Amino acid sequence: MRGLGIIILAAGQGKRMRSAVPKVLHPLGGRPLLAHVLDACTGLDPEAVRVVVGHGDERIREAFPAMDPGAWVLQPQQLGTGHAARCAVDALGDFRGDLLILNGDVPLLSCRSLSGMLAAHQSGGHDLTLGVATLPDPSGYGRILRGRGGDITGVVEERDASEAQRAIREINVGLYLAPADFLRAALAALDNRNHQGEYYLPDIAGFAARMEARIGSMTVDDPREFRGVNNREELAWMEKTLQADINRKWMERGVTLKDPDSTYIDAEAVIGEDTVIGPNSHLLGRTVVGAGCRIDGSAYLTDVRLADAVHLRFSVVLDDCDVEEGVSIGPFAHLRPGTVLKRDVHIGNFVEVKNSSVGEGTKASHLSYIGDTDLGRESNIGAGTITCNYDGFAKHRTTIGDRVQVGSDTQLVAPVAVGDDAYIGAGSTITKDVPAGALAVSRTPQQHMEGWVAGFRARKSK
Asked: How many domains does the chain contain in total?
């Protein structure tokens, strides 16, 4: 069996997207379009991959830092898909295996279909195999031309097709598979005498027919697999289609989605069994949700790790944080990057936590900001508490020990440390370290000015 190389065409500008972002970098399910295509190809275990880039090539390379630098091929001028393929074949040097060519904007293409095409090509001993489909409305696609015996004789692009050819419903889906030596000869024979003045890759089918080569085809049954993204409307359709597939997958795996139509789960997110997710929730990036969790709704999670039995109450935002078992968060809470919540922590209404570790069983129930803090076990943070971590030039840390009681409306001015079992009186501003077991109080003595209100009102009414 011959080795396999893969060529992905991703050099187009995508003018109809009307965007400064290269088309193949537009996100779908939280990942660039091109990433989905690369995933489909990875399952084939290819010996070599070449991605042809042109418009925005530096941005595309930067978006895939783990890719072998040798995998990128620059098409300096966009002279057509045939020219792009020729650039890639030249970059492959003396590669002698089969070459699969596909487009970088077909994100729903499956590895299963590609594997089927490879098997049909190699078992049939073909010189060229094309991916084909039959559509009720073939508008926009190149048509497959066949002779009287049913053999493929060529492919004609719609803009160059005659009226009779446009009536053909069998289309070219943009998948090509051929031995490298045959492909080199076919690409060298291309010309640009067509409506666009470009070198068309589909014209290699006509070359193969003239050479009396063995041409095979494989039918792609699901039209979603070869549908490309050319504008924002198609991208939105693709997002909705992919999201429906993702949601169905997780429901089949034991996750309850109370309203799948308003639940958005990125392709790389993972969810455990018996988790219940309420409406209008977003699980984005590489978010991982454990088993038996409850997400009440209107949650926005990005790159979050939730352990089992976590309860996210209504309307919470979590970003790049770690949450252990049994934690309750919200409603209306915000966890920012670098936050770690240990087991059975409670973070309540309108509490924000940033770059902090909160120990097991600790509670911050309302209206507090905990930033750049190491907070111990079984402590209680009263309403209105603020860790004042920024001095205008640098961030400083606050350390609060185990079993500490922090009274309401307290400010802890970092850097400052509070020892185990300490109490902080309500309304205090703490600027010095508090010893373990001590009571810290910082208050201005209360004063009464008898009759002040009447005089104030009299002055204001004049």
From this structure: 2
